[in-house]
Specification:
- InterPro entries: KR_dom, NAD(P)-bd_dom_sf, Sc_DH/Rdtase_CS, SDR_fam.
- Belongs to the short-chain dehydrogenases/reductases (SDR) family.
- By secondary structure, the protein is of the alpha/beta class.
- The chain has a single domain, classed as 3-Layer(aba) Sandwich (Rossmann fold).
- Helix content is about 40%, strand content about 15%.
- It has helices at about 15-25, 40-50, 70-80, 105-125, 155-175, 190-195, 200-210, 220-230; strands spanning about 5-10, 30-35, 60, 85-90, 135-140, 180-185, 240-245.
- It has a seven-stranded parallel sheet, with helices on both faces.
- The chain is globular.
């Protein structure tokens, strides 16, 4: 399926986000790739340039998604560049490991701000660029950790559970505009950030729990997200698609 959609994606520099950027660009879409800072995006663009992969349909935008001003500026950049947003993918996330009794109020708020409030703010800012199209796709990233909890990540699990509730409510509210809203819940996906945060014994334990008995990689999420962003998923909304290699069978 080749299209000329405009796709806005947050968390673009991460392992999952960059794989998604590749997939939509390969499909012929315009991608507005958002991450937290120009410095982060600059390093990412330099790596792409080194490999000859810079694309005129790729637009990068730095934004603090945890603030109303940052997300309003992001939406304005999208409006100026493309005039619309057909697909919104809220992929940005942060998952620090902090035992509950050691967690400060600031740490709690920071994780909810990025994972839950950021999803709310970006969606609210972008909706005016989508509602009048009569067609739209919103794919939000949850987490498989919401199904059984994760020790020392209560703030993250609570935020991702909130994303599921938010998405179901938005699906009810936006269906009349032809906009679908769905959630992807990955298992523990082995990106560089995960390798930096989790010891190998945790990754090995995850492999043993999976029916498919291998590491989950960023590329495993690309097909499911691309499907939910397509015409083929036009009658699917308010759903949570769990992609974890068979840890949870829901």
């Amino acid at each position: 399926m080749s299209t000329d959609r405009v796709v806005l994606l947050t968390g673009a520099v991460g392992g999952i986000g960059s794989e998604l950027v590749d997939r939509f660009l390969d499909n012929g879409d315009t991608v507005i790739a958002c991450d937290v800072s120009e410095e982060t995006l600059g390093g990412w663009r330099a790596r792409w340039d080194t490999h000859g992969r810079l694309n005129p349909r790729l637009v990068t935008a730095a934004a603090d998604i945890a603030t109303a001003d940052g997300t309003a500026d992001l939406a304005e950049q999208a409006r100026q560049h493309a005039g619309r947003v057909d697909v919104l993918i809220n992929c940005a996330g942060w998952f620090p490991i902090v035992p509950f009794e050691e967690m400060s109020s600031d740490q709690w708020r920071q994780v909810l701000d990025i994972n839950l409030t950021g999803t709310f703010l970006v969606t609210r800012a972008v909706l005016p660029l989508m509602k009048n199209l009569g067609w739209g796709r919103i794919v939000n990233f949850g987490s498989g950790s919401t199904f059984d909890g994760t020790a020392s990540q209560s703030h993250y699990v609570a935020a991702k559970a909130g994303v599921i509730g938010l998405s179901r409510s938005l699906a009810r509210e936006l269906g009349g505009y032809g906009i679908t809203v769905n959630v992807i819940t990955p298992g523990l996906t082995v990106t560089q950030a995960v390798r930096d945060s989790f010891p190998e014994e945790i990754l090995a334990a995850q492999r043993e729990r999976r029916a498919l008995q291998r590491d989950q990689l960023a590329g495993d999420l690309v097909g499911p997200v691309f499907f939910l962003a397509s015409d083929d998923a036009g009658f699917i909304t308010g759903q949570t698609l769990n992609v974890d290699g068979g840890v949870f069978m829901l």
